[in-house]
Amino acid sequence: LQHKCSSKPPNDSTLTEVNNTTLEYLTSSLSTKLIPTVYLSAVLLGVPSNAIILWMLLFRIRSVCTAILYTNLAVSDLLFCIVLPFRIAYHLNGNNWIFGEWMCRATTAVFYGNMYCSILLLTGISVSRYVAIVHPFMYKRLPKRAYATAVCAGAWAVVFLYMLPLCLMRQSYYVKPLGIFTCHDVHNACETLSAFQFYYYISLAVFGFLIPLVIVIFCYVSIIQTLKTHEWFWYVKVSLLILTIFAICFVPSNIILIVHHINYYYYNTDRLYSFYLIALCLSSLNSCLDPFLYFLMSKIRMCPAPHPSCQEASPSPEMNGMPASTNPGAPGPPEWSHM
Known about the structure:
The chain is mainly α. It has helices spanning 20-26, 29-59, 64-92, 101-134, 136-141, 144-168, 189-192, 195-226, 233-267, 273-284, 286-298, and strands spanning 2-3, 14-15, 172-175, 180-183, 187-188.
């Protein structure tokens, strides 16, 4: 949401001209009741579930590859859950931010950073699964620890660089008609209309979401085609479940983000912003869904016969009634849970 562009200095945090759409949103039950309720649910589910998964990863999982990938995902989700109470307090307080400008910038960066860090990490995990299932011989030669480390380091580096502008731009403004300080809900229209902000948000959605989405879809479609026999029915269902959750959490907010900024930059309208905030609520649920996905995947073993490419503790060769391979050098289907 933006206030009307005026001749005031850009560093003036007091907004005297705010459009009616902005005022309606800031006083609506959507922003003061529904949004904080969804965020509170995400915190109540996300904190204990991610803490449990993190404990399992640190003390019970023997695969370094698994620990690296999912520990980073759990840490990202926990950071999100830690800062989310500030957003909850903000909305319950009538969209009045009382924690200062720098805390507003930090929570905004962590909020968006979690979304795109999760997307990039899930993309890296999907590529690893794709190679393991579709190209098992290539997976056998893959330096798994180095791959996991590179994926995590790359994801955090990209997110850090993309979140820097949010930390440098003013996020908190005083709305004089309502007597409140907003946090990331109202922006200076003169700044928002700049080409930099337009291309910043568009590139964020393209490189942080659209390209990873194409990669994830390709990976899981290939996995489903490879595991289309009856024996792997449940693994196909899990792949579809992951795609569905990925779509629910990330597709709406990023698509609306692109359309919203195109509309505002070219047509000076922000009518989609309320829908965007609802979509962001859906994306916050990712922080409490990731642990359940990991728990589900950890129960599925696809390594009926141990082979060198499996670094996890493999189940017995007779698992699911399948005989052990008589050729120790032949790579069987790789274990699903370690990626």
